[in-house]
Amino acid sequence: MLAIAAAIVFGIAFLLDLLNASIGISLTALIALGLCLLALHQAGIGTASVSSWRRGGRVRR
Questions:
Q1: Above 60 in pLDDT, residue 15?
Q2: Are 17 and 26 in contact (CB under 8 A)?
Q3: How many CB atoms lie within 10 A of CB 34?
Q4: At residue 55, does pLDDT exceed 80?
């Protein structure tokens, strides 16, 4: 999920760069935000695993 958010942030930064537009936040800040989201994704934060899902759910036999 964080990788998708990072892709959206990078896409917005790319479009703003192409259009030479500004939304009050610098392009460098958007790129840094995207890189932080990718780093969190690579660290395993925000990803669902089968074991964590089974712990909270009911086990059917």
A1: yes
A2: no
A3: 19
A4: no
